Amino acid sequence: MKYQIRFILFFLFVGINMTAFAQQNETTIKILLPQTEKWNIKKVSISYSNPAFTDLRNTAIFEQKDSTTNNWTTTISLSTAQEWKVNIGNKWTFNLLLFPNDQLEIKLDEKGAAKFLKGKTAKENESTYDWLPNFYNAVQGFATSEPKEATKKIDSLTNAYISTYEKAFTDSKPNPTFDTYFRTELKLAQILAYNQYPYLYGRQIGERDMSKILTDEYKQSIPTFKADSNTDYIYTSSYLMHVYNNSLGENCVYKEEQSRTVFLKCQYEGLQKIYEENKTLKKLLAFSSTNRVFQSIKMAGVMNLDAEEEKKLSVFLDEMYEDLNKKYPNTEEIIFLKKQIELTRKMSSGSPAASFSLKDKDGKTVSLADLKGKLVLIDFWATWCQPCLAEIPHALKLEEEFGDDVAFVYVCMSSKEDKWKEMVAEKPAQQIQLFVEGEAQKQIQEDYQVSFYPTYILLDREGKIITKNIRPSSNGQEVLKKTIESEK
Q1: Which of residues 313, 346, 379 is at a domain's end?
Q2: Is residue 216 included in any domain, yes or no?
Q3: Using one digit for the tens of pLDDT, what is the confidence trace for 111-134?
């Protein structure tokens, strides 16, 4: 009997401590919003994006427990500090650095300014609240400045953020983890601004030759950052991108005449060797490498990769999956990667294209199945997309030449319907102009892997995929002519 009591007490002790441990990792976030019409929102969420796969997210939905107040609360489990993004009604977003076993309470005023009432790092989060979008908005304004003036402005902006942050801690010390995180993210934002400016400036002055702006003098002025090998660092997507792009130096540089597969394989193997001792960073870089291969397959048309190169990329992606599945089985990253590979196979040449039925500009339903018997060139575009609009004159020429054999289908996405109707009102009646939004758009984006605009896909007369490597302004005429002649 004595031993039975001890046995029961032991499991009670373990159970209590395991419960306590679980509770210690729980962090509660409470957001108090103004009770005005402007802040009458239906949903508040917070999400964490895996640095290697930004589409791999953990999301928590806030609850409004009392409908008479505009207060929202959620609880998430954390094992370590992580960067999360709050989304308020798809109108206001901001980042938070969250810690395990914490209680945050944030009050927003009518203009969206935040006061952090509770939290381990309330002062830290408040002093850096909303800094990132404001930083990049300011950088956009530097596009009209000459290079030397622009770099001075970027440095001045960076120093201003550091100064404001440090003034908040004149009488105390910031949390060391948060301090390293913020200073690192700001430095990376500064470097990214330096790298983005030449392209913004070139667009302003109509200069496409970046060598005239990205001079040796300018390149030497770009700040440097050395990746930290500390496995406890809070790796973010910006940190991972910088490490990926800058760790190999001249040892792995892409050249136009080089195989894309060879280049990506060089990056994958090189990064794994460099960060062999840093298990966390090595894992993230490995999966980030697979993501780059996956994106190259998706963007084969834009990158002018031929069918043979696309096949090599697919084989390499399968090899990477086999290798990583042995090293990281049953992880969320490997499960996500497997799903992405399955999606790429659905979009490979010879695979049946997913069916869809959408309304045209006259309200008539048009189904992809209705077009069997013709080649079909689908253009996924958006009203605000300048490259999409630039392709239209070239597509019209193709229609004039191949209209008897090819159905040209224009599917407008991520746009406002009124704007779309205005833009297609004067189009020829025979043109197939379709509009999609909401859940139907999400499905098409997944089925056809549309992650950028414009995306073109050519289907055969049975509705099977011929190629994604087609664009009216470049190889459109050549591909269509070759496809039609091969049928004879």
Answers
A1: 346
A2: yes
A3: 999 999 999 999 999 999 999 999
Structure tokens at 115: 């006061």
CB 131, CB 187: distance < 8 Å: no
Residue 351, domain member (yes or no): no
Q: Is the pTM of this model over 0.90?
A: no
Q: Note down the domain range covering 53.
A: 26-129
| One domain, residues 369 and 480 | yes
Q: Please, is 418 exposed, middle or buried when counting C-beta atoms within 10 Å of its C-beta (0-12, 13-18, 19+)?
A: exposed
User: What tens digit of pLDDT does each residue of 256-303 get?
Assistant: 777 899 999 999 999 999 999 889 999 999 999 999 998 888 777 667
Phi and psi dihedrals of 268, rounded to 5? -60, -50
Distance from C-alpha of 394 to C-alpha of 377, rounded to nearest angstrom: 13
- Whose structure tokens read 């009216």? 472
Contacts 24+ apart (CB under 8 A), 347-352: 347/298, 347/448, 347/449, 347/457, 347/465, 347/468, 348/314, 348/465, 349/307, 349/465, 349/466, 349/467, 350/464, 350/465, 351/464, 351/465, 352/462, 352/463, 352/464, 352/465
For the purposes of burial, counting CB atoms within 10 Å of the CB of 449, is it exposed (0-12), middle (13-18) or buried (19 or more)? buried
Q: What is the pLDDT of residue 298?
A: 78
Q: Phi and psi (nearest 5°) for 230?
A: -70, 120
Planar angle of CA 267, 273, 274, nearest 5 degrees: 85
Residues 470-485 pLDDT 10s = 889 888 898 899 888 8
CA pair distance 480, 471, nearest whole angstrom: 10
472 and 421, same structural domain? yes
Flag whether 164 is in a domain. Answer: no
| Opening angle at CA 62, ends 56 and 68, nearest 5 | 160
9 within a domain of the structure (yes/no) = no
For 16, the enclosing helix (H) or strand (E) is helix 2-24
Domain count along the chain: 4
Give kind and range of the element (H or E) at residue 320.
helix 307-327
